[in-house]
Design goal:
alpha/beta, Alkaline Phosphatase, subunit A, Gyrase A, domain 2, 9-stranded mixed β-sheet, 11 helices, globular
Length: 426
């Protein structure tokens, strides 16, 4: 029995290759080197609604000021009228509002009698006269994502079937997009963008939009000189810092293009113009009012309305649509109202005289007014550091975005990339 056990032990020792034999032990091969992913730059277009360039002078914007110092900056002229939806659509199409079809925050179209466009309208019918850059990019195989932007929720080029739950067919959209909700915080908006950029390269967007509305809201509610606007500006700076830090943590290079759609002018109760004190309400309908008024006559009442509106008066000038001054590049689109009145900067036009004594702010004035000027900052590997540009028109932003994305220049645009030729590094 002992002999058989000894023989078995000897067999096991032989099969294990004499593990106890003396001699050097070979070191295991080193693990393969882990290299960080070499990410291509992403282009991020950021809108700070209502952010005037001089808001950077309030001492509460360390992040934006650092980006300005290390990148490209300018004072940017909005398109006319200097309001939110027309200018956001101009920024991404390269066409003035008169050529995009988004001529106001409210408007009418004779092809849709009884219907009024509002800032909640997402029917492609209203939006599809000019192609936004994310649609151009998607058609070129470039993945896009939009964390809010006026019109980014629209199925561009499609047809809405209002009889079947507003289903849209034949549309092009960003691969990822969010329906605007003002309750979504700035931090949540930034985090959503960073989450998109955490994806694998195959599903990671190369063009992203990000929109903030809080500075504009504070300007309307309290006026541009208010402490509330300064507080909103400081908070936006923190959100941009959150974005920059998130990109750095991912090792994600980015070309940031930070813009505003317009500025803001202070208003006061003593600077109000009531239309019903100028013309008889039975002669007209007001489509939109504020810094300007878009007015449609009641059929057959045109002569009476013109007699009231078109005479010279203080703090407001009115025109027939065809007689709007050419420098505004506005008035040829069928959606522009038959009569248009523009207030002096700081004055407001209302249907009737307001009953509350509200001191606040608004925009929509002459787009050359200093108060309407908009922020422009660009920072990233595509931009030379520390460069200041001459003032330019916001129709030039979309051609810049096309350059950053490697898209062709585009045809029939009202803007071009000439302002940026001396500051692009590639």
């Amino acid at each position: 029995m002992m002999t058989r056990m000894a023989s078995a032990a000897a067999l096991v020792l032989a099969l294990t290759g004499c593990a106890a034999a003396p001699g050097p032990i070979a070191s295991p091969p080193p693990p393969p080197a882990v290299t960080a992913e070499q990410r291509a730059p992403v282009t991020i277009l950021v809108s700070l609604d209502g952010f005037r360039p001089d808001y950077l002078d309030r001492g509460v914007t360390p992040v934006l000021s650092r980006l300005k110092a290390g990148g490209v900056s300018a004072v940017m002229r909005p398109s006319f009228p200097s309001i939110t939806f027309p200018n956001h659509w101009t920024l991404v199409t390269g066409k003035v509002p008169d050529h995009t079809g988004i001529v106001g925050n409210a408007m009418e179209d004779a092809r849709r009698p009884g219907e009024t466009f509002t800032m909640a309208t997402d029917d492609p019918f209203w939006w599809s006269e000019a192609e936004p850059v994310w649609v151009t990019a998607e058609k070129a195989g470039i993945r896009t994502a939009t964390m809010f932007w006026p019109g980014a929720n629209v199925g561009w080029g499609g047809t809405m079937d209002k009889k079947h739950h507003n289903a849209v067919t034949g549309a092009t959209r960003p691969q990822d997009w969010q329906q605007f909700n003002q309750a979504v915080t700035g931090a949540q908006r930034v985090d959503a963008v960073i989450d998109w950029l955490r994806r694998p390269a195959a599903t990671r967007p190369r063009f992203v939009t990000l929109y903030f509305d809080t500075v504009d809201t504070a300007g309307h509610d309290h006026g541009p000189a208010s402490a509330e606007v300064t507080q909103a500006v400081a908070d936006i700076d923190r959100q941009i810092g959150r974005l920059v830090d998130g990109l750095a943590a991912l090792g994600q290079p980015a070309n940031l293009v930070i813009v505003a759609d317009h500025g803001m002018a202070g208003t006061a109760p003593e600077r109000e113009i009531a239309l019903d004190r100028i013309a008889k309400p039975e002669d007209y309908r007001v489509i939109e009012a504020g810094a300007f008024a878009a007015i449609a006559p009641v059929p057959g009442h045109e002569r009476a309305l013109e007699a009231a509106l078109l005479r010279p008066r203080a703090h407001m000038q009115c025109w027939r649509k065809a007689e709007i001054p050419a420098r505004f590049r506005y008035g040829t689109n069928p959606r522009v109202a038959p009569y248009f009145c523009l207030a002096e900067t700081g004055w407001k036009i209302d249907k009737t005289m307001p009953t509350d004594a509200h001191v606040g702010g608004t925009h929509g004035y002459d787009n050359r007014a200093p108060e309407m000027r908009a922020l422009f900052l660009a920072h990233g590997p595509a931009f030379a550091p520390g460069r200041r540009l001459a003032d330019f028109d916001n129709v030039d932003v979309a051609p810049l975005l096309r350059d950053l994305l490697g898209l062709p220049p585009g045809e029939g645009l009202d803007g071009n990339d000439a302002p940026f030729q001396g500051v692009l590094t590639r």
